[in-house]
Amino acid sequence: MIAGVATSDYPHLPNMSEHAVHGQAADRALADAGLTFADIDGFATTGFFPMYATGVAEYLGLHPIYFDETNSGGSSFEVLVEHAAYAVESGAVDVVLVTYGSVQLSQMGRRLGTGGGGGGFAPGPAIYDALWGNTLVGNYAMATRRHMYEFGTTPEQLAAVAVTMRRHAATNPQAQERELITVDDVVSSRLVADPLHKLDCCVISDGGGACVVTTEERAADLPGTPVYVLGAAHATTHHLNLSAMPNLTVTPAAQCGPVAFARAGITHADVDVAQLYDSFTITVVLTVEDLGFCAKGEGGAFVEDGGLEVGGRLPTNTDGGGLSACHPGMRGMFLIVEAVRQLRDEGGATQVPDARIAVAHGTGGMLSTGATLVLGLDAP
Amino acid sequence: MIDRAPATGDERPPKPRPAPVPDADSAPYWTAAHEGRLVIQHCTRCGARQLYARDRCLVCRGSVEWVEASGRGTVYSYTVIRQNYTRPFRDWIPYVVALVDLEEGPRVMTNIVGCEPEAVRVGMPVRAHFEAVSEEAGIALFSPEG
């Protein structure tokens, strides 16, 4: 069960170290759970260096008997929480703290999405796609182009995702971008990598979050409202070579989504609210299709006309998402925190009435990995 | 092949295109491109064809051999890169990065050159030509057929 969640301060933290962001989020999540650092026997986090979790544990003064730093990019924290749920269920550990921290905006500025393609970070076979000046945005742009070609998806349909995220962000005082935008604003913003415009791309932020995973028995003794991890699964189709992705319009969500839903024993009609990784507008369109909320190719129509707003077909990214609220590089933790807040009726202006089942789905790399968590208020 | 003026105000000489460092798997591929040939792997057991270079067939795990490809293909998808801070690419903006499906099946990433970026289309027939990028390695770029 998830017994506590928190976000750190965000989106701009020029006076905090990356590790202090982990610490702030951990303090808040433990307080939310009604626990202290002394209660933790497991720890999970991930970053861009090997033995990253070990380093953060050292910084926080933790000596856990379980640690995990599985890195699948943006979906990492869904995977880490899945693993943590298995770990506590098995009896191996009692309380796993999962943290995320990043000061990417302050350290790197906005280069992540539009640098590279020069063979710099190209371990082994990754060299094949690293010679052409492609960028992170370029990969998602090619998926977008192919989706447009096969299904007639329009820039305006994609823009609807960004417009909805901004509407949600406008109610989130912490959100990085809060000024309302229109479809026309999105499609008339400059092209970064055709056909993706600037406003089809997520913001780049500082920030982090944390959650506490524990057993049902332990959670029963805690003051808050715990949330069940009803089902989870993750999948991968390729790493950094987009040329190795079998089909640019089908993400790993098509594999892990149905498995997670089956493990949770739910159908799509049971899902009240979704937190879907929105690195780019296309990421959301592909994800609603691959998770099965609509047929392949119908994602454009699904997200139009307020389809992702509260009261719409699938209320999504109620905090404003990575497109508007906060995207520090691996946003998956924010999906979990917001999903739990919705289930605990703490969603504020974007609260989905009587939300009992939430789906958090992370997407990592170049549409390379997917990880689905089905969370619920009621015992399975 | 992509020859554009450097960004205004940057007085440094143009940076060359990055070059792959061949390894035990990939050396035949980069060497062939250096010689002006496009090669792909062919499974000696099941006949499947693949790129990139691996030590085995992705379908049946059989052994693979290198065979020559026609150099013809079609654009599976593409993007026009309009923002990249990394040299030398920022000096090329706007330029086309594409995935090309070779006539023989395998898919490769490449640049489409020899036409305006706005002229590129999904499904467009393209043909490989080659550029030496080091003493030992070449790469395959693609241009519109005909």
Task: Please outline the helices and strands.
The complex is a heterodimer of chains A (about 375) and B (about 150).
Chain A: E1 2-7, H1 18-33, E2 42-44, H2 52-60, E3 66-68, H3 76-90, E4 95-102, H4 104-108, H5 136-151, H6 155-169, H7 183-187, E5 191-193, E6 196-197, E7 207-214, H8 216-220, E8 228-236, H9 253-264, E9 273-276, H10 281-290, H11 299-303, H12 321-325, H13 332-343, E10 357-364, E11 369-376
Parallel strand pairs in A: 2-3, 2-4, 9-10
Antiparallel strand pairs in A: 1-7, 4-7, 5-6, 8-11, 10-11
Helix pairs in contact in A: 6-10
Chain B: H1 27-34, E1 39-43, E2 49-50, E3 64-68, E4 72-81, E5 95-102, E6 107-112, E7 125-132, E8 138-144
Antiparallel strand pairs in B: 1-2, 1-3, 4-5, 4-7, 5-6, 7-8
Give the strand line-up of the largest sheet of chain B. 6-5-4-7-8
Return the average pLDDT of chain B rounded to an integer. 93
In terms of per-residue confidence, which ranges of chain B show pLDDT below 50 for 5 or more consecutive residues? 1-6
Question: How many helical stretches of chain A?
Answer: 13
Largest sheet data of chain A: 5 strands, mixed
Count of DSSP strands of chain A: 11
Structural class of the helix and strand makeup of chain B? Answer: mainly beta
Q: Which percent bin holds the helix content of chain A? A: 25-40%
Arithmetic mean of pLDDT of chain A: 96
Task: Name the CATH class of the largest domain in chain A.
Answer: Alpha Beta
